[in-house]
Design brief:
Length: about 325
């Protein structure tokens, strides 16, 4: 049995010191074989001896270049070196060698490793940029702009404040208020949801989200949000008022017109309704419900489908016999 085979056998048994001994003997017998150096590097990696792993990988690449080894083997050594650099916290070096590995042999594994290192580098840069004191200054500038009605510049200052302190829910809440003033409802909703993600008990986020949904005409969704706000503070005047107004609007909407075509026309202006009716699966379900009344109870067992059916019922689509 060759020294390489003996090394592989020891490696599989996790007898790393024995594996190192055999791979080093294999290198003494033939120092021009890339795989001996690469296998040695693999042992060091498993032992968490990342410095020696990097050194062995460098030698493997050098030997591979000099002896025109298969580019796939060279790429493998480069990838292992990149992973070792990552473990050492040397992300810049990891990125450089992984880029070379991808150039040598573009595989999903190497691309994923490179992507992870790039993401980690980006996070490092973002973290180094953070400064709560500067965030507070930018927030105050944003507040001044907001008070003066300059919502565009307020957004710029709040955005900078968020980069400086991405965990401050109040900054996201303030920016959501700006986006609402600018009628950028999707962006406002995103900031409200971020607030809730950071602090699920932050009442103002629910109140702002309710206002945004009202502005978008999504009164049924707004009712749900105000309900959550009231669970946090049952005495919140703003939540009570929003809840009352939304329910009033929904009732008025239902009673406004009994003409089927008018109901359908208003309902079709709702983006959520358009999305539901554009779903081929929902079209089949609705047709089935028309042909088989019993199908409704079956479909209502599925929460996702039930929610869509209730939405269509709420706006009057189902009552007009939509096909």
């Amino acid at each position: 049995m060759s020294e390489k085979q003996l090394g592989n056998k020891a490696y599989q048994k996790k007898d790393f010191q024995t594996a190192i001994s055999h791979y080093e003997k294999a290198i003494e017998l033939d120092s021009t074989e890339l795989t001996f150096h690469s296998n040695l590097a693999a042992v060091y990696f498993e032992m968490k001896d990342y410095d020696n792993c990097v050194a062995s990988c460098e030698k493997a690449v050098e030997v591979g270049r000099e002896n025109r080894a298969d580019f796939k083997l060279v790429a493998k050594a480069m990838s292992r070196m990149g992973n070792a650099y990552k473990k050492l916290g040397k992300l810049t070096e990891a990125k450089a060698i992984l880029e070379k590995a991808v150039t040598e042999h573009r595989t999903p594994e190497y691309k994923q490793a490179l992507s992870e290192v790039e993401k980690a580098l980006k996070q490092e840069v973002e973290k180094a940029y953070q400064d709560p004191a500067i965030a507070e200054e930018e927030k105050n500038k944003g507040n001044e702009n907001f008070k003066g009605g300059d919502f565009v510049n307020a957004v710029k200052h709040y955005s900078e404040a968020i980069k400086r302190n991405p965990t401050d829910v109040k900054i996201f809440s303030n920016r959501a208020a700006c986006y609402t003033k600018l009628m950028s409802f999707d962006l406002a909703l995103k900031d409200c949801d971020k607030c809730i993600e950071l602090d699920a008990t932050f009442l103002k986020a629910y109140l702002r989200k309710g206002k945004v949904l009202q502005g978008m005409g999504s009164h049924s969704k707004a009712v749900d949000v105000y309900q959550k706000a009231l669970e946090l503070d049952s005495n919140s005047g703003e939540a009570l008022e929003g809840f009352r107004l939304c329910n009033q609007h929904l009732s008025a909407q239902q009673n406004q017109s009994k003409d089927p075509e008018d109901v359908k026309r208003r309902a079709m202006a709702d983006p959520e309704v358009q999305q539901i009716l554009g779903d081929p699966a929902m079209q089949m379900i609705l047709e089935q419900m028309q042909n088989d009344p019993k199908a409704l109870s079956e479909h209502m067992q599925n929460p996702a489908i039930a929610k869509k059916i209730m939405k269509l019922k709420e706006v009057g689509i189902i009552s007009v016999g939509y096909r």
